[in-house]
Design goal:
Blueprint lengths: L1 E9 L5 E11 L2 E11 L6 H14 L7 E6 L3 H4 L5 H8 L4 E4 L1 H9 L4 H9 L8 H21 L8 H4 L13 H11 L2 H9 L2 H6 L6 H11 L21 H11 L5 H5 L2 H14 L3
Parallel strand pairs: 1-4, 4-5
Antiparallel strand pairs: 1-2, 2-3
Helix pairs in contact: 1-3, 4-6
């Protein structure tokens, strides 16, 4: 199983770049890697984006059926109900779900601020003197903010609490069959598993149980594997392979191509495009 994150970017030369990151199980951990970085030569429509990704998947024999989730920024080209990239992917990946980047949802919730309130906040120095009119605007803004929160952030799904902590007493989750619920109770009764749960990571705990409880672990992975945002940040990783940012890989490719003045070269659209194609050739893409 794997989950992907899609995003478009534009380099300094104005060239549209498609970035696809992937999350997958590697041994006993969930890893994140750059799957695809390629220029979009024609346009950035949902159909063109899907065509590029699908071509890569077919070339490298990656089965779409194993894709369980797609995270995007919610742009029209991505989420269009008929021609969007995600809609096209779901047509070939029947088990696939989609999610809207949590950071973009935060931005959408907070972007609608009344001009009068923004001016007051910008001009405030040591002490904010609120007039009756400003107080009314603040109250209206907070009420609208509450409505936006309910619009972009659905109620918490308590049905997955068992994944976060399988050792807490709880009723049978609706998503589990009776057999799976009995397996969960069995896990809860094992003291050595509780010790492993408390001393290791959540991902490792569930992945190590996949051979013994395959159906139960599969449902846990469906929740743990997807991306929750479209921005990958560096974090400390005590186990597994060290994470490599996509920009680090670009620098490595430029070094192999003996490109010394990358920033100057990037200003020349045609020259930079040649470097992108050459870098793809280094990796056999």
């Amino acid at each position: 199983m794997f989950a992907i994150q899609l995003d478009k970017s534009t380099d300094v030369a104005g060239l549209s770049i498609l970035l696809v990151f992937v999350r997958y199980i590697f041994e006993t951990s969930i890893e994140e890697d750059l799957l695809l970085c390629t220029p979009l030569d024609t346009n950035t429509t949902g159909g063109e984006i899907f065509k590029v990704i699908d071509s890569y998947m077919n070339k490298h024999q990656v089965d779409w059926v194993k894709c369980i989730d797609i995270c995007s920024d919610g742009a029209a080209a991505m989420v269009g109900k008929i021609k969007g990239t995600i809609t096209r992917i779901k047509n070939v990946a029947p088990k696939c779900h989609s999610s809207h980047c949590v950071l973009h949802r935060h931005a959408l919730v907070s972007k609608k601020m009344p001009l009068e309130l923004k001016q007051v906040l910008n001009e405030a120095e040591n002490e904010l003197q609120l007039t009756t009119n400003i107080k009314k605007i603040v109250i209206e803004h907070l009420e609208n903010l509450e409505k936006s929160l309910f619009q972009y952030f659905l109620a918490t799904n308590n049905d997955v609490d068992w994944i976060q902590n399988p050792f807490v007493n709880q009723k049978k989750p609706a998503m589990l069959s009776m057999l799976e619920y009995e397996q969960l109770i069995e896990i809860k009764s094992m003291s050595y598993l509780k010790q492993k749960f408390e001393s290791g990571s959540l991902n490792e705990f569930w992945i190590e149980l996949k051979d013994e409880y395959p159906s139960l672990v599969e449902k846990a992975i469906f929740t743990l594997l997807p991306f929750d945002n479209t921005i990958l940040t560096d974090t400390k990783r005590p186990r597994g392979r060290p994470r490599q940012r996509w920009v680090d890989r670009v620098k490595e490719d430029l070094k192999l191509l003996n490109v010394r003045n990358a920033e100057e070269s990037a200003n020349d659209r045609e020259e930079w495009k040649q470097y992108v194609v050459a870098a793809m050739g280094l990796k056999g893409l």
